[in-house]
Amino acid sequence: MAAGADEQAGSVKAGEWDQYKARFLDSGGRIIDDANGNVSHSEGQGYGLLLAVLADNPADFALIWSFTRRELLLRDDGLAAWKWSATETPHIIDINNATDGDILIAYALVLAGERWKRQDYLQAASRIAKAILDNTLLDHGGRTLLLPGVTGFGTTDRPDGPVVNPSYWIFEAFPALDRVAPSPRWKALSDDGLAFINALQSGPRKLPADWVSLRAMPKPAQGFPAEFGYNALRIPLYLARADMGGRDLMARLRAGMAGDNDALVLSDASTGAVQTSLTDPGYRFVNHILACVLDRVPIPDSVKVFSPTQYYPSTLHLLGLSYVREKRPECL
């Protein structure tokens, strides 16, 4: 999203944020993933920070940031350890980073720093953004790509490496990160990521898989489910929020994801067979965003009102509502 922080603030309503934090934010500042054993992770902290900015709530932002800084930013390279559990000792149960989490954290810090005139947030964002540039970008086949983590995904890490996750391209974040860590590589990452997603057309539904090997021709990566799954379903949301994608790509994603009664379907990347039909309002909202973007179809009343369900779809729901209020009010 090209809009500055001032335009975005308040696009998540205070009452919606209150419901979200009552369900998923504990008193210590961690966002709880209630569908994954109540762990916390860098992605969730990043989403929480971003939603706190969109709700214009600096106190909650500071609380979430304090946990993130204290408990996750422990790596030597300036990136966040990705997985934390209250029931394990030490609490960090995987020290590797998750690059989308790092991007979300840095992006939220930029918006918060600009919105609330906090130089310390901008400095922290700059450090993380530089660490992303230094450690997670890969030049491969003439394209600038994003490694999902510093270790485990590169050309020499796996027989089918490099492996990427196309849903880790959070396009709206790259212009903001460029403001605190200027580099032409952010635009290259954005441009090449869009071209890359355009080229990923697996199976009869012509959808991207969650995890993609780029050793030769792009194909679903070994050791991961070969599916358009819970990761990839957020790709159209990220494209829409960044005002990117183009009609052909968005229409293809819409057609491939659409199920009966506005459900969002997850499918086998090779055969297109439906694996799961998702009816949670947060997932269905992604379909409705595409209908809005493509055809100005109004958002149904059934998903206009936010009521938290589980961490992930509830997060997507608020990001979707925020986007429609800011950029597509004609669909409300």
Describe the structure.
The chain is mainly α. It has one domain: Glycosyltransferase. It has 13 helices and 11 strands. The protein has a 3-stranded antiparallel beta sheet. The chain has a 3-stranded antiparallel beta sheet with strand order 6-7-8, with no helix packed on it. Strands 9-10-11 form a 3-stranded antiparallel beta sheet. Helix 3 runs parallel beside helix 13 and helix 10 packs antiparallel against helix 11. It starts with a helix and ends in a 5-residue tail after the last helix. It catalyses: Endohydrolysis of (1->4)-beta-D-glucosidic linkages in cellulose, lichenin and cereal beta-D-glucans. GO terms for molecular function: hydrolase activity.
Characteristic key phrases:
332 residues, Glycosyltransferase, three-stranded antiparallel β-sheet, 13 helices, 47% helix, disordered N terminus
